[in-house]
Amino acid sequence: QITLKESGPTLVKPTQTLTLTCTFSGFSLSTSGVGVGWIRQPPGEAPEWLAVVHWNDANHYRSSLKSRLTVTKDTSKNQVVLTMTNMDPVDTGTYYCAHRQVAFGLGVWGQGTTVTVSS
Amino acid sequence: DIQMTQSPSTLSTSVEDRVSITCRASQSIDSWLAWYQQKPGKAPKILISKASHLESGVPSRFSGSESGTEFTLTISSLQPDDSASYYCQQYHSYPWTFGQGTKVEIK
Lengths: 119, 107
Hints:
heterodimer, A: mainly beta, seven-stranded mixed beta sheet, 0% helix, globular, B: mainly beta, 50% strand
Protein backbone atom coordinates (compact mmCIF):
# COMPACT_ATOMS: atom_id res chain seq x y z
CA GLN A 1 0.00 0.00 0.00
CA ILE A 2 1.40 3.37 -1.04
CA THR A 3 1.18 6.19 1.47
CA LEU A 4 2.69 9.66 1.60
CA LYS A 5 2.70 12.30 4.31
CA GLU A 6 3.80 15.91 4.20
CA SER A 7 5.42 17.63 7.16
CA GLY A 8 6.75 21.09 7.84
CA PRO A 9 5.87 24.45 9.35
CA THR A 10 2.30 25.68 9.29
CA LEU A 11 3.28 29.33 9.51
CA VAL A 12 6.14 31.14 7.79
CA LYS A 13 6.95 34.82 7.56
CA PRO A 14 7.26 36.71 4.28
CA THR A 15 10.75 36.39 2.71
CA GLN A 16 11.47 33.22 4.71
CA THR A 17 12.27 29.87 3.14
CA LEU A 18 9.74 27.04 3.34
CA THR A 19 11.00 23.48 3.69
CA LEU A 20 8.53 20.63 3.40
CA THR A 21 9.28 16.93 3.68
CA CYS A 22 7.31 14.17 2.02
CA THR A 23 7.81 10.84 3.75
CA PHE A 24 6.49 7.87 1.84
CA SER A 25 6.13 4.11 2.03
CA GLY A 26 5.03 1.32 -0.25
CA PHE A 27 7.33 2.21 -3.13
CA SER A 28 10.94 3.09 -3.87
CA LEU A 29 12.15 6.20 -5.68
CA SER A 30 14.90 4.10 -7.21
CA THR A 31 12.38 2.00 -9.17
CA SER A 32 12.20 2.81 -12.86
CA GLY A 33 9.24 4.95 -13.81
CA VAL A 34 8.45 6.25 -10.34
CA GLY A 35 8.20 9.90 -9.41
CA VAL A 36 7.00 12.15 -6.58
CA GLY A 37 5.29 15.40 -7.39
CA TRP A 38 4.48 18.48 -5.33
CA ILE A 39 1.20 20.31 -5.80
CA ARG A 40 -0.28 23.24 -3.91
CA GLN A 41 -3.82 24.51 -3.66
CA PRO A 42 -4.66 28.05 -2.57
CA PRO A 43 -7.86 28.31 -0.54
CA GLY A 44 -10.91 27.88 -2.80
CA GLU A 45 -8.83 27.45 -5.95
CA ALA A 46 -7.74 24.66 -8.25
CA PRO A 47 -4.58 22.64 -7.57
CA GLU A 48 -1.35 24.00 -9.04
CA TRP A 49 1.54 21.70 -9.92
CA LEU A 50 4.91 22.84 -8.54
CA ALA A 51 7.57 20.23 -9.21
CA VAL A 52 8.38 16.57 -9.72
CA VAL A 53 11.40 14.38 -9.05
CA HIS A 54 11.87 11.04 -10.78
CA TRP A 55 13.75 7.83 -10.12
CA ASN A 56 16.44 8.88 -12.61
CA ASP A 57 17.02 12.29 -10.93
CA ALA A 58 15.08 14.08 -13.66
CA ASN A 59 13.57 17.08 -11.90
CA HIS A 60 11.07 19.48 -13.40
CA TYR A 61 9.72 22.72 -11.98
CA ARG A 62 6.87 25.13 -12.59
CA SER A 63 8.52 27.68 -14.83
CA SER A 64 7.13 30.73 -13.01
CA LEU A 65 8.56 29.46 -9.71
CA LYS A 66 11.69 27.75 -10.96
CA SER A 67 14.06 30.28 -9.39
CA ARG A 68 12.47 29.68 -5.97
CA LEU A 69 12.02 25.89 -5.94
CA THR A 70 14.32 22.99 -5.23
CA VAL A 71 13.31 19.36 -4.90
CA THR A 72 15.67 16.69 -3.60
CA LYS A 73 15.21 13.03 -2.87
CA ASP A 74 16.73 10.78 -0.23
CA THR A 75 16.08 7.27 -1.46
CA SER A 76 17.48 5.64 1.67
CA LYS A 77 15.08 7.58 3.91
CA ASN A 78 12.10 7.38 1.52
CA GLN A 79 11.81 11.15 1.59
CA VAL A 80 11.47 14.01 -0.85
CA VAL A 81 12.15 17.56 0.27
CA LEU A 82 10.66 20.70 -1.30
CA THR A 83 12.31 24.03 -0.64
CA MET A 84 10.67 27.30 -1.65
CA THR A 85 12.53 30.54 -1.04
CA ASN A 86 11.28 34.09 -0.53
CA MET A 87 7.80 33.14 0.63
CA ASP A 88 4.95 35.58 0.07
CA PRO A 89 1.36 35.69 1.37
CA VAL A 90 0.16 34.54 -2.09
CA ASP A 91 1.98 31.25 -1.41
CA THR A 92 -0.54 30.46 1.32
CA GLY A 93 -2.34 27.18 0.73
CA THR A 94 -2.33 23.44 1.18
CA TYR A 95 0.75 21.66 -0.10
CA TYR A 96 0.54 18.05 -1.26
CA CYS A 97 3.01 15.46 -2.40
CA ALA A 98 1.87 12.62 -4.64
CA HIS A 99 3.19 9.42 -6.17
CA ARG A 100 3.15 8.91 -9.87
CA GLN A 101 4.11 6.20 -12.31
CA VAL A 102 5.27 7.37 -15.72
CA ALA A 103 2.37 7.41 -18.20
CA PHE A 104 -0.15 7.79 -15.40
CA GLY A 105 -1.42 10.71 -13.39
CA LEU A 106 -0.77 11.55 -9.76
CA GLY A 107 -2.02 8.29 -8.39
CA VAL A 108 -1.73 8.55 -4.62
CA TRP A 109 -1.70 11.81 -2.67
CA GLY A 110 -0.65 12.69 0.82
CA GLN A 111 -3.17 14.27 3.16
CA GLY A 112 -1.66 17.70 2.57
CA THR A 113 -0.21 20.28 4.92
CA THR A 114 -1.53 23.81 5.25
CA VAL A 115 0.99 26.62 5.06
CA THR A 116 0.14 30.21 5.94
CA VAL A 117 2.48 33.03 5.02
CA SER A 118 2.00 35.98 7.32
CA SER A 119 4.04 38.33 9.41
CA ASP B 1 2.10 26.52 -20.97
CA ILE B 2 -0.83 24.33 -21.99
CA GLN B 3 -4.13 25.80 -20.83
CA MET B 4 -6.88 23.47 -19.67
CA THR B 5 -10.35 24.97 -19.97
CA GLN B 6 -12.92 23.08 -17.97
CA SER B 7 -16.71 23.44 -18.12
CA PRO B 8 -19.12 23.90 -16.55
CA SER B 9 -17.76 25.50 -13.38
CA THR B 10 -20.76 24.30 -11.38
CA LEU B 11 -23.38 21.70 -12.02
CA SER B 12 -26.52 21.05 -9.96
CA THR B 13 -28.21 17.81 -10.80
CA SER B 14 -30.19 14.90 -9.39
CA VAL B 15 -29.27 11.45 -8.20
CA GLU B 16 -29.15 8.91 -11.06
CA ASP B 17 -28.70 11.64 -13.67
CA ARG B 18 -26.00 11.30 -16.30
CA VAL B 19 -23.32 13.97 -15.83
CA SER B 20 -20.67 15.14 -18.28
CA ILE B 21 -17.74 17.46 -17.57
CA THR B 22 -15.58 18.75 -20.40
CA CYS B 23 -11.95 19.80 -20.49
CA ARG B 24 -10.37 21.39 -23.55
CA ALA B 25 -6.60 21.61 -24.01
CA SER B 26 -5.04 24.60 -25.75
CA GLN B 27 -2.90 22.24 -27.83
CA SER B 28 -2.50 18.54 -28.45
CA ILE B 29 -1.80 16.49 -25.34
CA ASP B 30 -2.37 13.13 -26.98
CA SER B 31 -4.11 11.11 -24.26
CA TRP B 32 -2.01 12.34 -21.36
CA LEU B 33 -4.91 13.51 -19.24
CA ALA B 34 -6.08 12.61 -15.75
CA TRP B 35 -9.31 13.31 -13.87
CA TYR B 36 -9.51 13.82 -10.11
CA GLN B 37 -12.30 14.05 -7.56
CA GLN B 38 -11.88 16.24 -4.49
CA LYS B 39 -14.13 16.49 -1.48
CA PRO B 40 -13.92 19.40 0.98
CA GLY B 41 -10.89 19.20 3.24
CA LYS B 42 -9.49 16.16 1.43
CA ALA B 43 -6.75 15.57 -1.08
CA PRO B 44 -7.69 14.99 -4.71
CA LYS B 45 -8.27 11.38 -5.65
CA ILE B 46 -7.42 10.10 -9.09
CA LEU B 47 -10.28 8.65 -11.11
CA ILE B 48 -8.89 8.28 -14.63
CA SER B 49 -5.47 8.33 -16.32
CA LYS B 50 -4.56 8.33 -20.00
CA ALA B 51 -7.90 9.95 -20.79
CA SER B 52 -9.93 6.76 -20.38
CA HIS B 53 -8.06 4.35 -18.10
CA LEU B 54 -10.17 3.79 -14.99
CA GLU B 55 -7.96 3.66 -11.91
CA SER B 56 -8.19 0.71 -9.57
CA GLY B 57 -11.10 0.84 -7.15
CA VAL B 58 -12.98 3.59 -8.99
CA PRO B 59 -16.65 2.76 -9.63
CA SER B 60 -17.51 1.82 -13.19
CA ARG B 61 -20.08 4.62 -13.43
CA PHE B 62 -17.10 6.91 -14.06
CA SER B 63 -15.66 6.94 -17.57
CA GLY B 64 -13.42 9.14 -19.68
CA SER B 65 -13.32 9.85 -23.39
CA GLU B 66 -11.51 12.10 -25.82
CA SER B 67 -12.00 13.74 -29.17
CA GLY B 68 -8.96 15.63 -30.37
CA THR B 69 -8.16 18.18 -27.69
CA GLU B 70 -11.52 17.82 -25.93
CA PHE B 71 -11.85 15.40 -23.05
CA THR B 72 -14.96 14.33 -21.18
CA LEU B 73 -15.56 12.81 -17.77
CA THR B 74 -18.92 11.09 -17.58
CA ILE B 75 -20.75 9.82 -14.52
CA SER B 76 -23.40 7.47 -15.87
CA SER B 77 -25.69 7.54 -12.85
CA LEU B 78 -24.89 10.16 -10.26
CA GLN B 79 -24.78 8.96 -6.67
CA PRO B 80 -24.94 11.08 -3.49
CA ASP B 81 -21.30 10.24 -2.78
CA ASP B 82 -20.29 11.90 -6.07
CA SER B 83 -20.97 15.38 -4.73
CA ALA B 84 -17.48 16.90 -5.05
CA SER B 85 -15.22 19.05 -7.19
CA TYR B 86 -13.66 17.51 -10.27
CA TYR B 87 -10.43 18.56 -11.97
CA CYS B 88 -8.69 17.59 -15.17
CA GLN B 89 -4.90 17.68 -15.46
CA GLN B 90 -2.60 17.31 -18.44
CA TYR B 91 0.76 15.62 -18.05
CA HIS B 92 1.84 15.73 -21.68
CA SER B 93 4.39 18.45 -21.08
CA TYR B 94 5.78 20.57 -18.28
CA PRO B 95 4.44 22.50 -16.51
CA TRP B 96 1.63 20.08 -15.77
CA THR B 97 -1.59 22.09 -15.62
CA PHE B 98 -5.02 21.64 -14.07
CA GLY B 99 -8.42 22.81 -15.20
CA GLN B 100 -10.27 25.33 -13.05
CA GLY B 101 -12.58 22.67 -11.67
CA THR B 102 -16.25 21.69 -11.76
CA LYS B 103 -18.30 21.59 -8.59
CA VAL B 104 -21.03 18.94 -8.76
CA GLU B 105 -23.93 19.50 -6.41
CA ILE B 106 -26.84 17.19 -5.75
CA LYS B 107 -30.28 18.81 -5.95
